[in-house]
Amino acid sequence: MAYLLKGVSILGAAPVDLYIEKGVISGKPVDGATVVDATGLIALPGLVDVHTHLREPGREDAETVETGSRAAALGGYTAVCAMANTSPVADTAGVVEQVWRLGREAGLVDVQPIGAVTVGLAGKQMAELGAMATSAANVRIFSDDGFCVADPKLMRRALEYVKAFDGVIAQHAEEPRLTEGAQMHEGEVSTRLGLTGWPAVAEEAIIARDVLLAEHVGSRLHVCHVSTAGSVEVLRQAKARGVRVTAEVTPHHLLLTDELAAGYDPVFKVNPPLRTASDVAALRQAVLDGVIDVVATDHAPHAVQDKECEWSYARPGMLGLETALPIVLSVFGPQWDLIADRMSIAPARIAGLDGHGGDLTQAGTPANLTLVDPAASWVVDPAGLASRSRNTPYAGMTLPGRIVATFLRGEATVLDGKVAK
Amino acid sequence: MAQPRADAPSKIILEGSDLSRVVDRIAHQILEKTSGATGTVLLGIPTRGVPLAHRLAARIHAFEGVDVPVGSLDITLYRDDLRLQATRALGKTELPPGGIDGLRVILVDDVLFSGRSVRAALDALKDLGRPSSVQLAVLVDRGHRQLPIRADYVGKNIPTALSESVKVTLTEIDGADEVKLIGGLQ
Amino acid sequence: MIKHLRSAADLDAATATLILDTAAEMAALSGREVKKLPALRGRTVVNLFYEDSTRTRISFEAAAKRLSADVINFSAKGSSVSKGESLKDTALTLQAMGADAVVIRHPASGAPHRLANWVEGSVVNAGDGTHEHPTQALLDAYTMRSRLGRLDGLRVAIVGDVLHSRVARSNVLLLTTLGAQVTVVGPPTLIPLNVAAALSASTKVSYDLDSVIPDSDVVMMLRVQTERMQDSYFPSSREYSRRYGLDLRRMKQMQEHAIVMHPGPMNRGMEIAPEVADSPRSTIVEQVANGVSVRMAVLYLLLGGK
Q: Which parts of the sequence belong to the Phosphoribosyltransferase domain (chain B) (predicted)?
């Protein structure tokens, strides 16, 4: 099917008529193209999330590849990288191929599996990274996310080993001995609430160690969900020295602070935890500076019973796919080039997803894109989200920017703000 | 019960020395009716019953040289209308050193109205001991009883409408002695 | 009046003082032969205990019964709680039973806050995790006021494992609200970072017990669990006891009028020497007795009105 996106503004430029045919941007008008009135809409390259939890296999009551794909498409995404902490863990070629195939079947976004670094995420023995890399899933990012690869020797080996297939280790930076029993950011609020603190240094110490390791062995390192001002400083210095490190931040760490824990509602419990306002300010600046390369959702659906309980018993994590772009838009305003880079181009490059994050002004670019109405605003209603879970921290908030349409290789996955297939 | 508005018209019934004369009369009646107030304890019901009890004791002492023990009996926890209002602060319950067992207790309150306060006082008294008899002295009886209760000593009967209220102020608490009838007058 | 008592921070000075004054009346009434008062007749108080604490449960039970409330004890052992029923489902059950107040003891900080979302009645925190224990702070304040005559301007040292102590948190908040000057004392590992900023700006921190004792009107010793040793908070009980225990030598440095408090249960010989615990300065037994009066006051003020 061919489309004409009439009067669309590519990254905020003057309106044009954009034709899509045979899965790519067409350089010339196409007869019989379905017309989408894109007046006032912004075209962005389809968003790419390097950090998504789809929960399948294992916790299909919280999310499935299919429901997560719907949420992703509605959020403007054309590709998501599915984290390995499923049950069973995605630590073999078999599991990553299963997730990859489920993604294909849903057909709404490219689901790119992330492989576990260690068997069972246990941090003891390296998983068969090569087998996952050469599987049908073509895995390039490896992560024990949820757990830190804490053993420095194992981390060093993993960083070295993946060089053979241009892989990257995505580290969940959390020194486990410093965060035993941790429930929230260690600071004034944790003292007041009597919740065990998760000190910033537990993240910063691991990032500092890992950039030194990556430098030593000449490998790529990716740092998941950076959450502190101190981490930003460590990364800034490493990048200035030329270390091949990339880093991501989540929308919630760009907006929310630890004060929200005051009512003990676990919808605000996340790992790493919400930090202070000065951390938020440093993270925003790091996104602007490019010290942080990527905004990634860490979309973490949880069943109702895992959140409607005592704070300490609740699972950490927040929904993110359907609210990421609006949050980023509310934080940075309509800086479309910045948004496209941090949410599509850079993550596609890190994940090795060649068809994504392309230049929409060039004929022949794969037609992975999303249309945003920056003038529209909406109120977040947990029940109205496509995710199977409801654990959004933004319930009741009015957010700017509505995703009107999303195209995956020229096919509409979302039209008029609704899933198209 | 509906209260008259703050700016409702009011009429002064007793003030200053009138009120003192009324207290004197009650003191005389007590002496007369109890054969010299021996074996008697005065228990004031907070708030304004307590200074009234002390005044009666002082007057009895002045008239006959008899020392009548005085205490206070808070009835808050025994009220049957606790849940109809916001939580009330407690008053003091203080029995004289000799207690009340086997003695004549005279309960003292400012206004007798529905009789429910007196019922609560009788319940509270029962948990504190066993007096030989209980009597009631009030400064004002405004009528409208809801329980079979009557006072043994009444300073002044004031016929009232239900829409009216009686306000007693005492020097010890309010800075002036006065009994006022509020509302209902046109 | 407030609806719930989840934290000592729920109390302003006027409300806290009203509770203490009411407790004093309750204490006076408790001395008589007929201890039962009819104020809460027909009201149901549920003691929901997820942790064993016979002392606290009995204290609340006695308080509720003296006010003629119906008391239901719902303990984690031998109930549906141990079968993994969620706090929310338990709350809905209690709601259906018509609980007017739920007194909750729970190992998770903030559980009373969560519970208050799911029941219509009042929630009273009887100790939650490492967060707060507001009625303990009220009975401590009551004990100080009855022994020393005032709270305003009183200098109180709270000594020991402040980091993990719900008693310390509630006491710092309440005592500061009532005008006392609090110093928390202990090894740096057991004093939370930013304690003054987190709880109340006037709170002082000291790592030297000997320098604090002569200036204190009240020395409150906290229970120190020996498990903390394994977690490197301090090297040994011997060293802890030497540096932060209240022994006879230190007690002699106290002012004539100063008192020693302990929320119990005590580790005799660890944070407090037996001779100190049993000395006339010690208010430990009074604290227990005052607990019932203070809890009567809290229940009456939460449930006595409309």
A: 13-159
